[in-house]
Write a structure and sequence with these properties.
single chain, about 170 residues, alpha/beta, Rossmann fold, 6 strands, disordered N terminus
Length: about 170
């Protein structure tokens, strides 16, 4: 919002500006966020959150966004991830977790980090690469306790939140 000033003068003895009613200005319109052509999802061990996000993105936008995932440290695919992704018709049984250093291609437009460690690692990449980094903090569902069904519910919650965020961000 801009304001009109009355009595503005550059002379020392001139009266001081007085703030008056707001002046109508053009509304600020933010451009929609562009859809990247190459996207990396990153988490701690590339075993739960980032492979789910990458698989969901590939399903929602087939052939539209080159999508990969990586972790800060090596991990192993979590069997609960396979179970909750199978529930929505996405088979990730062939996913092999890998680290940032093991990526064959690092030419990404956008890195979405899902864990603090991954965010710090991605920010290091911005020193040498022109790319954007977004931080989507997500709980680690592997920390859930309780019955098998309660644990699966925590994985489902992360899966569904990732799907919602991906749809909102890239649609």
């Amino acid at each position: 919002m801009r304001f009109a000033l009355e009595g503005v003068s550059l002379e020392d003895d001139a009266p001081k500006p007085v703030l008056t009613e707001p002046v109508a200005s053009e509304p600020v319109v933010l451009a929609p966020q562009a859809r990247p052509s190459a996207l990396l999802f990153a988490c701690r061990m590339n075993a739960i959150r980032s492979p789910m996000a990458a698989a969901i993105t590939r399903q929602m936008f087939p052939g539209q966004i080159y999508t990969q995932s990586a972790g800060v440290r090596p991990g192993a695919l979590d069997p609960f991830v396979q179970a909750v992704m199978d529930e929505i018709g996405i088979d990730i049984s062939s996913h092999k977790p890998h680290t940032f250093e093991e990526l064959e291609d690092t030419n990404f437009d956008l890195i979405i980090t899902l864990a603090p460690e991954a965010h710090h690692k991605a920010m290091e990449l911005t020193r040498t690469n022109a790319l954007e980094v977004e931080y989507w903090p997500m709980q680690d569902p592997s920390l859930a306790t309780g019955s098998r069904e309660q644990i699966l519910d925590s994985y489902r919650a992360i899966r569904d939140e990732l799907a919602r965020r991906i749809r909102e961000r890239f649609s």
